[in-house]
Amino acid sequence: MSTVIKGISASPGIKIGKAHLYLGSNIVIPRYKINKNDIERELARFDAALEKTKKEINGIQQQIADSLSKDLANIFSSHLMVLEDPLIAEQAREKIKNEKRNVEWILNDISLELINSMSSIEDEYLKEKIIDLSDIHKRLINNLLMTDTTDLSSLDTEAIIFAPDLTPSDTAVMNKKFVLAFVTDKGGRTSHTAIMARALEIPAIVGTFTGTSKVKNGDTVIVDAYHGKVIIKPSKEEIIHYQNFQKEFILLDKHLAELKHLPSMTLDDVEISILGNLELPEEKKIMKEHGAQGIGLYRSEFLFLDKSLPDEEIQLNSYREVVEFFKPAPVTIRTLDIGGDKIYAYSNLYKERNPFLGCRAIRFCMQNSALFKTQLRAILRASNYGNVKIMFPMISSVEELIDARTILKTTMNELKKEGIPFNEDIPVGIMIEVPSAAIDSDHLSKHCDFFSVGTNDLVQYTLAVDRINESISSLYNPLNHAVLKLLKIIVDNSNKYSVPLSICGEIAGEPVYTMLLMGLGYRNFSMSSNLMHPIKRIIRSVTIKECEELASELLKLENSKTIRKKLVSYMNTKFPNIFV
Ligand code: PEP
Ligand code: MG
């Protein structure tokens, strides 16, 4: 008998394959005393784990350098430095001998002690060091416990990954060639894992709660990421049914791909631009192949994935690569949006009670101005090589925008003094993703050159529904009247004050919302590559009048349930081949 589990479709597709259970860093530290006679054995375990960990990191580094980029690979150099630090290894050996406790326990204590004692120090270098330590100790402990530490970079056969959750570095190092799909217990449609899956065009289902406890390594599994359904140990009939389904989708995809060179224009000749949301520079080719007319959101967080901060040159190269590739089309680089679910190198240092309401995005950058200025310098320098726009995330007030712009201005002046060329008229825009920014978009319009609506956050902050919490995902509803009202306010202010507007939240890349958004007045859509073709198909099949009528009908309805029902049935009837 097969077992069916349900989750949230995060990235579409159907895959049939073998399960690979990956528990990541969810480990329990064993604590026990050892005898005098066991000391040598414990030291030998430590040495063996040390060696193994070094080899692993060298291997990962090589693999990333070959398959992704040297910049990303360099992130792991600092890990090796930590492992080779004689002071730390010596301290561990001494403690094993003197305190006669098992090595996992000792390593965990050393790591915690260092983090606690040094986390208040305002020294960027030391901070990086601490983070390296904690990460490396996790890896060492995994090796001591001999759990399946093989991170996803060492996959060598095709598999469907089941994990409690995937961190950004899990997804960055995973050997994508062998990852058929992934299924996670946690997360929602707009969690970073889900966004990454779409960026990498890997079918994914998130928020299954129980996926990892229901599946065993090697089980045959069907992932239907159109309907958020996972079938564990399917019957022969189920496999045949889904194989046929897969064939139909491949045909549909081919058919839709024929649209890619045609203009993105409605039947009544209104141009709707399709831009890309870029997670990694490596995606640039696939974006262009899908017809992206530029990049509406270049999430720069990938550069800050791990422990050491990227310097100006590393950042410049990553931005320049994309900017030159798309030139003369625009590339909108968003400054670092760390915090919330995008917890990277600083996660141990910045544990907050309410991370989504905490020191996130522009707030983090304003408090870490050296880091912010380095990024601004790199973006400004990249503007010398093509059409670059700067975008600040999570602006919640006019004052905040003015402050951010002051730092930008200072950075520009410094570059000018140094004689370094950049575009002095670089457009500066903001993400509208906090209700206050939407409501106050009239005032904000006077201080920036463009708006981009981030509905992933706008929905979460408007409805007070955590975007990554699977247990309340049914409350995360972009069709709530409050959200629709805010979306309309933004369009109205953008038109009234002539501020160019785009939308880059995930709903911009979901076909079911396309007509509604066009009806509300949106004309520029930024999305991940995998749904650009179906969206263009919709754009080319409708008139603006039709969209406006649909939007106005929907806005008259009583509540979001009825809105959804009507919208889904309308879109299903009009585009029976796109919706499944
Ligand atoms: C958003 O909030 O809609 C957005 C595009 O930004 P992110 O998903 O990166 O927070
Ligand atoms: Mg956001």
Mean pLDDT rating: 87
Structural class: alpha/beta
How many strand segments?
16
The geometry reads as: globular
Bound molecules: phosphoenolpyruvate, magnesium ion
Q: Give the percentage of residues in beta strands.
A: 5-15%
Helical content band = 40-55%
Task: State the CATH architecture of the largest domain.
Answer: Alpha-Beta Barrel
The name of the CATH topology of the largest domain is TIM Barrel
Record the strand order, biggest sheet: 1-8-7-3-4-5-6-2
Radius of gyration: 25 Å
CATH class of the largest domain: Alpha Beta
Q: Give the count of helical stretches.
A: 23
Poorly predicted sequence stretches spanning 5 or more consecutive residues: none
Report how far apart the termini are: 26 Å
Largest sheet: 8 strands, mixed
CATH level-4 homologous superfamily of the largest domain: Phosphoenolpyruvate-binding domains
Give the count of structural domains: 3
Q: What topology does this entry show?
A:
Layout: E1 3-6, E2 8-11, E3 14-21, H1 39-67, H2 70-74, H3 77-83, H4 86-99, H5 103-118, H6 124-145, E4 159-163, H7 168-173, E5 179-184, H8 192-199, E6 204-206, H9 211-214, E7 220-224, E8 229-232, H10 236-257, E9 273-278, H11 284-289, E10 295-299, H12 312-326, E11 330-334, H13 362-367, H14 369-382, E12 387-392, H15 398-417, E13 428-432, H16 435-439, H17 441-444, E14 450-453, H18 455-463, H19 481-496, E15 501-503, H20 511-520, E16 524-527, H21 532-541, H22 544-556, H23 560-574
The protein binds phosphoenolpyruvate and magnesium ion.
